[in-house]
Write a structure and sequence with these properties.
Layout: E1 2-4, E2 19-23, E3 34-40, E4 43-48, E5 54-58, E6 66-72, H1 82-85, E7 91-99, E8 105-113, H2 128-141, H3 144-158, H4 163-175, H5 236-243, H6 246-251, H7 262-271, H8 290-293, H9 295-306, E9 336-345, H10 358-372, E10 381-385, H11 403-411, H12 422-427, E11 438-442, E12 447-451, E13 457-464, H13 468-488, E14 495-496, E15 500-501, E16 513-520, H14 530-536, E17 539-543, E18 548-553, H15 561-585, H16 650-657, H17 660-665, H18 676-685, H19 704-707, H20 709-720, E19 749-758, H21 771-785, E20 794-798, H22 814-822, H23 833-838, E21 849-853, E22 858-862, E23 868-875, H24 879-899, E24 906-907, E25 911-912, E26 924-931, H25 941-947, E27 950-954, E28 961-966, H26 974-996, H27 1031-1038, H28 1041-1046, H29 1057-1060, H30 1062-1066, E29 1084-1085, H31 1103-1106, H32 1108-1119, E30 1151-1160, H33 1173-1187, E31 1196-1200, H34 1217-1226, H35 1236-1240, E32 1252-1256, E33 1265-1270, E34 1276-1282, H36 1287-1307, E35 1314-1315, E36 1319-1320, E37 1332-1339, E38 1359-1365, E39 1372-1377, H37 1385-1401
Antiparallel strand pairs: 1-2, 2-5, 3-4, 3-6, 7-8, 9-13, 9-16, 10-11, 11-12, 12-13, 14-15, 16-18, 17-18, 19-23, 19-26, 20-21, 21-22, 22-23, 24-25, 26-28, 27-28, 29-38, 30-34, 30-37, 31-32, 32-33, 33-34, 35-36, 37-39, 38-39
Length: about 1400
């Protein structure tokens, strides 16, 4: 190997940017007539072997190896072209005979068709879908659809004797009516935006202001001393630092004058690994000075992005639109449909949106809004803050724009959404959302601006048609006016002489300009040369629909704004001319358009063999050829476990908490050869992102789930909450689906789609399957599907380029591919790094295909990421109809496979087996497409979906349309998942209807009713609890008679058994109570068992006696010991003893925080799950009256939650924003319930009414922060926090307040609920007894390779430990008591302190 620097000075440090020469000096044992093939990256060269022959390659940036292949020549023949050149029209066939070295002959059939170059085939006719879409658009745009609906409604209402005359009169009456104008945002009178209010209490000067919470991952304050591992990252930042690690050490301590650190700059590129095929910058500028302070990094990245020569010349700036040609791009008006130009700008005196504080962002908004409101004439307009932005009260927008205005702007495509991409969130762009963000829109239309999105200002100008001159003129005029207004205020745009206008993203520096032209190119776009032609014209191209394309400029650096606009104009005019030629006006264009015939369905595979299609070569793309993606090996695991400290996956979490597992599994292999290396490769290669935790492991075959069961069982428990004692039940019965209407109006639910994944027994899964196995799977499945009945009859289409199926040696035709793609039935090659690393894309597209039935209501994918995916779709809200179709399809296929001796993979405990553990169980996905224009504008929309057990993803087809799907899969039957999705959609539609009528729509579970169950509880007979966790579910499974015994009982206060066990019966995860001191956490007990949950809730104090038959055994199972009388209360800090004496301290490891919470309920009043609104108010009145009388060290102030109007001591709006911010900073602010189990039990009803925080000010300065929460999960929760390990001091503060408060309550005739048998009574039984929860968060040493969590603190202590958190200086662990029963309050503090001390002694 020899590296050659091409055209570079020898002083440059990067020889990798030059040429690499590869040669073979000798060959031993080489057969005769051998060919040598060398591949570096995506480039391959081959030739007969000749010693020392040199092959030249561009030196790679990513490839770590050279692939060397040897081929032996079998034979050769030549066919004369003379006879072919004379032929036109008919097909020329000739047998070619090739003699071989061993004397045999090979005969090949050669077919050639020579076409007349002067005759062009007709353009293709539109597909049925395109025709239907065009018709729908015509009817909608002209108001025909609305008129017809009104006419039919009037006809049915009046029912005239002569309906035809009635309809004629109705239409004639409509003729004279003008169409209603489109809704426009309603502007308010213009006002100057005053300087923003002083920063909240948590802010100070510009260098230490609260910059908002960045997402977890790479730190932002200071970069670690050791450069992070960037070997698998695909971005410009990683490429630069890998080539020269010294840059990291050079820049690590630097920061700009405004406080932007090197860590902030590179955080998005470290957190987000990226993909080799889509290379991002991987760094974000925090202010204008970032480009100078961190120039060694930025300059290298910019050279890679833009080219070396551009950075040495000054960046021109020219917005003079008079230099442009004013002629339209498309005078005919048939090709160019719209044009848009945008520019990005930042203010030089502030940090950019990636790094700015809340106060800075508001100052930027003020300056820009005032500047934009100086615009006059056609540019004059109004500013609309984003919904729920509170920064523009002076403009009459105290809570941002109205829902109506938001909907109007969204319809017009002017509204921007909260960033949801990993790299945007990691850059810090989502902080403080949506504060100080908004849209400016001019009154006459065509101009709008985004404030504080990715940059401070993004200015747009656009309109229909092809008048690019008018669009750029409008933009240039607005930019000039805004710049002048800013200069008068002493501000201006960030500018660098060499780099031009500066942006958060290095990709946008220079002009910051983007010109986008939407063009209708039905002929040119199907030409093979289309994309290369656009690239040659320096245009980026993106599909808008089947035949319309958006083209935009590639470059922003090195030329002026007007030059870039004119370059795009010239390129678009060339594309317009090419499209006209292809449409039939000119025959000279070289690209050939396809035949304009209606694509016909191919015949079934057994009837004919279609002609070969040209094969598409994916072999150069890593992961799509025959080889695995480079990285972690697949055959054998290394002896040492790879470093997973910065990986964000379930697999990494499991191995970090139990490193010894790697040594036990690394040598295992399934019977078909799947290794642990193959299973975890994708999770090792891809680090993932801290905000989106992936699984990080795939099964290679059916046996993987048993051979590597120790790993998969823990992954499944983390992913699904599915313990080893649980089992999945399959119910593919459409009659179990609720037939109640979901959308009675038919206006909201557009369609229901259901997908089921299946894999064939006896074959390896796609991630590990060989080429032969994959082809055999395709043969078995396609043959079985060809035997479907008449109602499911269809055709199988191999993917284009696949040569594995007898029906077509080259796969489906281009017309068939377009038809299936337009109908949404086609799948494409994977581009996710995770999927490619798993091996799912190998040998693409061989042995992959689509089966489609007539009418496209059912279809199937073969060999995508599972062997089979079955789909069924129904229009409207026909959930049962879609499920019935899917069940019929699956049943027919299973029967056909059984006749061939095959079947689906299925496990008695895990259900249907899939490649990814996330899809186990039912392996079903139900998706409803729903139009929610009002509800989706609410900030809590996705939270509403989560509360209903669903998720929401934006649909790509229409604005304000969402794909609603369920969350759970394992442990819930197929019919249950359909019912869950239908129930969620039903309630979302009801909320949308309420908003449309002007009524309020509370989030599910936070109104007057508890969160409804998605599962119906039968009035008689115990429901199936086989997939449910929690001690109560286990008791009922073992003793089902308890359900019949207690089912009809109520307490004297009216609390029914259905409320007590509501969560256990209705939710597989049940109701978690008091584990780890927090109601929703899980961990490991010191005895090695997993912390579970009780799964019950008490509605009043009598529940523990009336329903003792379920409470007692559930508590015994949860605590692991027999119930005995609760020890006497020991709320005395002097009783704290043990090894640590209640104080945890260490010189080597740090105790980060201590939290003690004491729960109490008032005697004689229902507990929070069962109390009414008036009873909750009475609890608030009693407790606040007693608390406000406390004095001395126990004095304080009561602050009702914001929005609570029930406390007579305060205003109707609850606590102020400043009070809320102060409590949040101290960690004392009560949070609304998040867990579904809590909401199902009614803990969120009427939130936030009659709830608040009493903050104790008397103990300030002593290190303990103390507050009382009223009507959270219990009537009263005393919460003490410290930033050290002095548990005894925190406990002393709680004891003092509890004693004083108890005395005040007794004077008023009240007391706390208590039982001689059980101690303090709580709504959540895990706390019953002492009512005390103690939690310590501390640093710990990494576990040894054979260590585990249970060994950390030894035996004899009733504590639990949460799995360690990785990512900081050292791992951290949380230690807490398991329950409040059987140990006194002082005893619990002693146990937790001693457990912490033992962990610290390991240091």
């Amino acid at each position: 190997f020899r590296s050659v620097r091409s055209g570079e000075s020898s002083r440059r440090r990067h020889p990798r940017l030059g040429i690499m020469e590869v040669s073979l000096a000798r060959a031993e044992g080489l057969p005769p007539k051998a060919y040598v093939s060398l591949r570096v990256g995506e480039h391959r060269k081959q030739a007969p072997f000749r010693a020392n022959e040199v092959f030249r390659f561009a030196a790679p940036s990513n490839s770590k190896s050279v692939a060397v292949d040897l081929f032996q020549k079998i034979g050769a023949a030549q066919v004369s072209l003379a006879s072919l050149c004379a032929k036109t029209g008919p097909i020329f066939n000739q047998d070619v005979c090739i003699p071989t070295a061993d004397g045999t002959k090979i005969t090949l059939g050669l077919g050639v068709k020579v076409l007349d170059p002067t005759v062009l085939p007709e353009a293709p006719k539109p597909s049925r879908q395109e025709a239907a879409q065009k018709a729908k658009c015509y009817l909608t745009e002209n108001g025909v659809q609305q008129t017809l609906q009104e006419m039919v409604q009037a006809l049915l209402k009046d029912q005239p004797k002569d309906p035809l005359s009635f309809m004629a009169d109705f239409i004639n009456a409509k003729k004279g009516q003008a169409p209603a104008p489109k809704p426009q945002p309603q502007p308010l009178p213009q006002k100057k935006l005053a300087a923003p209010a002083p920063a909240p209490a948590h802010c100070s000067d510009a260098h230490v202001e609260d910059d908002g919470d960045f997402p977890p991952g790479f730190p932002v304050d200071a970069a670690p001393a050791q450069m992070p591992d960037l070997s698998a990252h695909a971005n410009l930042m990683a490429e630069v630092l890998r080539a020269d690690p010294g840059i990291y050490q050079l820049l690590r301590p630097r920061r700009t004058k405004r406080g932007v650190t090197f860590a902030q700059v590179i955080k998005p590129g470290v957190d987000t690994k990226g993909h080799r095929m889509v290379k991002t910058a991987g760094l974000a500028a925090g202010d204008a000075e970032s480009y100078e302070v961190f120039a060694p990094l930025f300059n290298e990245a910019l050279r890679l992005r833009f080219g070396r020569q551009l950075l040495f010349d000054p960046q021109p700036c020219d917005m003079d639109f008079a230099k442009m040609n004013s002629a339209p791009l498309d005078p005919s008006g048939t090709i160019v449909t719209s044009v848009r130009v945008s520019i990005s700008r930042n203010l030089s005196t502030f940090r950019f949106p990636t790094a700015c504080s809340e106060q800075e962002r508001r100052q930027v908004e003020r300056l820009l809004v005032n500047a934009l409101q100086e615009l006059s004439g056609e540019l004059e307009g109004e500013y609309f803050p984003l919904p729920e932005s509170s920064s523009c009260g002076a403009l009459g927008w105290p809570q941002g724009m109205s829902q109506k205005d938001s909907e109007c702007l969204q319809t017009q495509g002017m509204l921007f959404d909260e960033p949801d991409s990993n790299i945007a969130c990691s850059s810090g762009l989502a902080r403080h959302w949506p504060d100080a963000r908004g849209i400016f829109r001019n009154s006459s239309g065509g101009l709008w601006a985004w404030l504080n999105e990715e940059d401070h200002l993004k200015l747009f100008s656009g309109q229909s048609g092809s008048d690019l001159y008018a669009v750029f003129r409008r933009l240039a005029s607005a930019e000039k006016a805004v710049s002048m207004a800013l200069n008068q205020e002493g501000s201006g745009f960030a500018w660098n002489e060499k780099l031009g206008f500066l942006s958060s993203s290095p990709h946008n520096i220079g002009t910051g300009l983007c010109v986008t032209v939407v063009m209708h190119l039905p002929c040119l776009s199907v030409s093979p040369e289309f994309r290369s032609k656009c690239a040659a014209l320096k245009l980026q191209v993106k599909a808008v629909d089947g035949k319309s394309w958006a083209v935009s400029n590639m470059e922003r650096l090195g030329s002026s704004e007007v030059s870039q606009v004119m370059a795009v104009a010239a390129a678009c005019q060339e594309l317009v001319a090419a499209e006209r030629k292809l449409s039939g006006q000119d025959k000279s264009f070289v690209a050939k358009a396809p035949a304009k015939t209606e694509p016909a369905k191919p015949a079934p595979a057994k009837q004919s063999i279609a002609p070969c299609q040209p094969k598409i070569d994916y072999s150069a793309v890593p992961g799509l050829g025959s080889e695995e993606v480079p990285g972690f090996p697949v055959d054998t695991c290394p002896s040492e476990m790879p470093d997973l400290s910065a990986h964000h996956s379930l697999m990494a979490t499991v191995f970090r908490s139990n490193p010894g597992m790697y040594g036990r599994l690394k040598g295992l292999k399934t019977k078909s050869g799947v290794t642990l290396a193959k299973v975890i490769k994708s999770g090792v290669d891809m680090k993932g992102h801290p905000m989106i935790k992936m699984v990080g492991a795939v099964a290679g075959d059916e046996e993987s789930y048993s051979t590597f069961g120790e790993l998969f069982s823990q992954i499944i428990a983390l992913q699904h909450g599915f313990s080893a004692a649980m089992s999945h039940r399959t119910k593919m019965d459409p009659m179990l689906v609720d037939a109640a209407p979901v959308d009675s109006t038919g206006k909201y639910v557009q369609s229901v789609r259901i997908c089921a994944r299946r894999n064939l027994k006896g074959f390896r899964l796609p991630s590990a399957a060989s080429l032969h196995e994959r082809r055999e799977v395709e043969r078995v499945l396609s043959d079985a599907m060809m035997h479907f009945g008449a109602s499911q009859e269809g055709s199988y289409y191999p993917l284009r380029g696949s040569a594995s199926h007898s029906s077509s040696c080259g796969g489906m035709s281009a017309d068939e591919e377009q038809e299936l793609d337009s109908a949404g039935l086609l799948f494409h090659e994977p581009d996710s790094g995770l999927v490619l690393s798993a091996g799912t894309g190998r040998d693409w597209p061989d042995a992959r295909g689509v089966f489609a039935s007539e009418g496209y209501q059912t279809w199937a994918w073969v060999n995508e990421d599972d062997h089979l995916q079955l789909f069924a779709e129904q229009p409207g809200a026909a959930f049962r109809g879609a499920f019935e179709k899917l069940c019929g399809l699956e049943s027919s296929l299973a029967a056909a496979l059984q006749q061939q001796g095959h079947g689906f993979m299925h496990d008695q405990r895990l259900g249907y087996l899939t490649s990814c553990p996330a899809n186990l169980g039912s392996a079903l996905r139900v998706v409803a497409t729903v139009h929610l224009p009002l509800l989706s504008l609410r900030r809590d929309f996705k939270e509403c979906c989560r509360l209903l057990g669903a998720s929401a993803a934006r649909s790509e087809t229409e604005a304000a349309t969402w794909n609603i799907s369920h969350v759970d899969g394992l442990g819930s039957s197929e019919a249950t998942l359909v019912n869950v999705t239908a129930s969620a959609v039903r309630q979302l539609v009801a909320m949308e209807q309420a908003l449309a009528s002007g009524a309020a729509a509370a989030r599910p579970g936070f109104g007057s009713e508890a969160l409804p169950l998605c599962r119906d509880i039968p009035p008689r007979g115990l429901p199936d609890l086989s997939g449910h966790s929690g001690a109560a579910a286990a008791v009922l499974r073992c003793q089902p008679g308890i359900y019949e015994e207690l089912g009809g009982k109520k307490t004297p206060g009216g609390v029914p058994f259905s409320l007590v066990c509501r969560a256990t019966l209705g939710l597989p995860a049940g109701l978690r109570s008091a584990s780890m001191g927090v109601s929703t956490s899980q961990g490991t007990r010191s005895d090695g068992k997993v912390v579970g949950s009780v799964g019950l809730c008490a509605g009043d104090e009598d529940c523990y006696d009336v329903f003792q038959a379920i409470f007692d055994p559930a508590l015994e199972l949860y605590t692991g010991k027999a119930l005995s009388p609760q020890p006497a209360a020991a709320l005395d800090p002097a009783a704290v003893a043990g090894e640590a004496m209640g104080v945890v301290a260490s010189e080597k490891l740090k105790v980060l925080s201590t939290r003690i919470q004491l729960s109490r309920n008032l005697k004689g009043l229902p507990f929070p799950p069962a109390c009414s609104s008036s009873q909750r108010c009475e609890v608030e009145r009693i407790l606040t009256r007693a608390l406000t009388r406390l004095g001395g060290r126990c004095k304080g102030t009561y602050c009702p939650l914001r929005g609570s109007a029930t406390c007579p001591l305060r205003s109707a709006e609850g606590m102020t924003e400043a009070e809320e911010s102060e409590l949040r900073t101290k960690g004392l602010l009560m949070q609304e319930p998040k867990a579904l189990g809590q909401l199902v039990c009614g803990l969120g009803r009427d939130w936030p009414q009659a709830r608040g925080v009493f903050s104790f000010s008397g103990c300030q300065g002593e290190g303990t922060r103390l507050a009382a929460w009223i009507n959270e999960e219990e009537h009263l929760s005393l919460v003490a926090l410290r930033s050290d390990g002095d548990l005894k001091a925190a406990f002393a503060a709680v004891c003092e307040v509890e004693k004083a408060l108890r005395c005040e309550l007794e004077q008023d005739g009240h007391s706390f609920a208590r039982s001689e048998r059980l101690g303090a009574l709580t709504a959540l039984p895990g706390r019953v007894g002492s009512g005390l929860s103690v939690r310590v968060h501390m640093e710990m040493l990494p576990l040894s390779s054979d260590g585990n969590m249970a060994d950390l603190c030894g035996e004899g202590l009733e504590v639990a430990l949460r799995p360690p958190r990785i990512g900081g200086r050292v791992p951290t662990v949380e230690v807490a008591n398991i329950s409040g029963f059987g140990v006194s309050e002082a005893g619990i503090v002693t146990n937790v302190a001693d457990a912490c001390r033992r962990i610290l002694l390991r240091a």
